[in-house]
Amino acid sequence: MLDVTGGFVALLAAITIGYVFTHHFAKPRLPPGVQLPPGPTSLPVLGNALAIDVSAPWVTYTAWGSQYGDMVLTRLFGHDNIVVNSEEIARDLLERRSQNYSDRPEIVSNELFGLDYNTALMRYSNRWRLQRKIFHQSFRQDVAHNFRPMHVAKTHELLLNLLENPLDFAKHLEVYSGSVIMSAVYSYDAARRDDHMLERITKGLHFMRKEMTPGITMVFSAFPSLLRLPSWLPGMHVKRVAPFAKELVLDILETPFAHTERGMATGSVSSCMVSEQLLALDENDVDAAWQKKAIKESAGTAFGGEYISFNTATVLMNFILAMILYPHIQERAHDLIEIVVGSNRFPTFEDRASLPYVDAILRECMRWRPVFPFAIMHAAVESDVYKGATITPNVWAMCHNEEKYRNASEFNPDRFLNPDGTLTDDTVSIVWGFGRRICPGQYLAEASLWSSMACLLAVFKFLKAKDETGAEIELKPQWSGSLTVRPLPFSCSITPRNEEMDITTLQRLIGASV
User: Fold this and answer.
1) Lowest-confidence segment of 85-94, 192-201, 336-345, 492-501 by average pLDDT
2) Dist. CA 468–CA 349, nearest whole Å
3) Is the pLDDT assigned to residue 457 strictly greater than 70?
4) Which of 189, 198, 143, 153 is nearest to 441 (CA)?
5) Interior CA angle at 219 toward 122 and 100, to 5°?
6) E strands along 343-439, which residues?
7) What angle, 0 to 180 degrees and rounded to 10, lies between the N-to-C axes of helices 442-459 and 311-325?
8) pLDDT band at 307 (very low <50, low <70, confident <90, very high)
9) If you placed Cys at 391, which of 12, 79, 215, 378 could pair as Cys (CB 3.0 to 4.6 Å)?
10) Helix (H) or strand (E) holding 134
11) How far apart are CA 1 and CA 55, in angstroms?
């Protein structure tokens, strides 16, 4: 299960086995009559680690849910992990009792890599509260419409990139995702192609994503004393790369933030998260330095959190896959857009109420293949039956609950439509998290998804790729993941719906839409 060498495993066993058993027997005992949820039999030290399918652990936990119930107790290296497979139970614990379940488990590797600033992973504290306040002020629902012109501009750039070079569609989606968040957070207008700052920062995030595997995180969080070992020992690669990782994190935090500060001094930046927060900052306040640091860290969390998981880009990759695999859905969307919008302009946010089927497709993309099959883990703040245990909401199980979503493995937007064609009340909000830890950028991200999906459907058709003989190449999609799930690279055909569409025509339509 773990991304570690054989030498590290041996070292781990030799150094920590005594610690594990000491830790186990030192655990506080439950009150009389109180029991933890049932779960599979665990091994000494390793717990249930060997029984979990590392390629898709959420599937393992879903199967265990069928056997043991909606709450399943698993153990990993002496630590209790309670997996919640039920949406109802998750909402009861993490929303209705959010005052107690809004903490995060301690992840010692965050500090090692310089990621202890990350709002999403931060323990429940005054530092977290201040950063959460910054996020809420910048991205709450009633101010999300302020970013609509930016969404439109970045969507138009995506259309141009896809028309010019459809083979690089995956890269174009990543650029779109990064450009949107860089603009919203830093008022940085990334170039449509080969933007220096965007590429520099994303290379650093690629490195972080590669090195901070769940296995490494799990081992060092369970046995923090290992961090005292010298970096030259076998299996201690993580300590050798940690200084470089901290340099990358510093660059991610400082470089775009400095861009916004310079722009504010010269009057060359528009409204964004950082500029609005800095303008509201009272330099004479005794806490001004602390608050400025919180703004910088919140901004870094917003960009790093979106890009390290490629959240928007991943949902759009799943969208393209679904359009290819279910051509009748794509054709229906094309027909509806043609009726509502026509062919002489692009769909706009003003058309959204008239295009509920596009919203249904968006919701089904998030449900069908949730980017985060597990919501980020929670922990209890105060004394509780589950104090000391990690609470892991299994979003995959909730999104594939056959009682709520019949034939859940199929892509079917109609499940989000009422008989009269209006949208249901089910917004699949579980994919954004729960309670006080729900994703604060959900409205920004959702607008990005809707704008891009509507315009992609208006301009392009997505088909299976063909070989040199003209025969269709069978598409067998696969996904890879750990904490997040992303489609593996696949080939497809992306062509304009209008055969006369070329760059000049597209640019003319874009100009008419501005």
Assistant:
1) 192-201
2) 41
3) yes
4) 143
5) 35
6) 378-379, 390-393
7) 40
8) very low
9) 378
10) helix 126-139
11) 9
Residues 258 and 186: their CA atoms lie apart, in Å, by 9
The pair of structure tokens assigned to 338 is 């043609």
pLDDT digits (tens, 9 = 90+) for 209-246: 777 776 677 777 777 888 888 888 887 888 888 888 88
Residue with tokens 């209006």: 422
| Mean per-residue pLDDT over the chain, rounded | 87
404-435 confidence digits (pLDDT tens) = 999 999 999 999 999 999 999 999 999 999 99
**What residues does each domain of the chain span?**
6-513
Give the per-residue SS3 of 208-254.
HHHHCCHHHHHHHHHCHHHHHCCCCCCCCHHHHHHHHHHHHHHHHHH
Using the CB atoms, write b or e for 267-306: b if 16+ within 10 Å: eebeebbbbbbbeebeeeeeeeeebbbbbbbbbbbbbbbb
Positive or negative: CA dihedral 259, 309, 461, 491: positive
Closest residue by Cα to residue 311 from 370, 395, 396, 249: 370
The C-alpha angle with vertex 293 and arms to 291 and 299, in degrees rounded to 5, equals: 105
Handedness of CA 75, 76, 79, 81 (dihedral sign): negative
Residue 2 reports pLDDT greater than 60: no
Please state, in angstroms and as integers, the Cα–Cα distance from residue 161 to each residue in 170, 215, 262, 343, 408, following that order: 11, 37, 29, 20, 34
| 110 and 444 Cβ atoms separated by less than 8 Å | no
Q: What is the pLDDT of residues 160-175, one digit of tens each?
A: 999 999 999 999 999 9
pTM of the model: 0.89
Separation between Cα atoms, residue 450 and residue 283, nearest integer Å: 39
From the centroid of its chain, how far is CA 32? Answer: 40
What is the distance, to the nearest Å, from the Cα of residue 428 to the centroid of all Cα atoms in its chain?
14
Q: What are phi and psi of 488, to 5 degrees?
A: -70, 155
Residue 135 scores a pLDDT above 80: yes
Q: Which two tokens stand for residue 289?
A: 């330095």
- Do residues 300 and 382 make contact, with C-beta atoms less than 8 angstroms apart? no
Mean pLDDT within 294-306: 85
Mean pLDDT confidence for 372-387: 76
Fold of 6-513: Cytochrome p450 (1.10.630)
- As beta bridge partners, residue 378 has 391
Give the integer Cα–Cα distance in Å for 224 and 75: 17
